[in-house]
Amino acid sequence: DTGVSQDPRHKITKRGQNVTFRCDPISEHNRLYWYRQTLGQGPEFLTYFQNEAQLEKSRLLSDRFSAERPKGSFSTLEIQRTEQGDSAMYLCASSSPTSGISTDTQYFGPGTRLTVL
Amino acid sequence: AQSVSQHNHHVILSEAASLELGCNYSYGGTVNLFWYVQYPGQHLQLLLKYFSGDPLVKGIKGFEAEFIKSKFSFNLRKPSVQWSDTAEYFCAVNAPGSARQLTFGSGTQLTVLP
Question: How high is the mean pLDDT of chain A?
Answer without folding.
Answer: 91
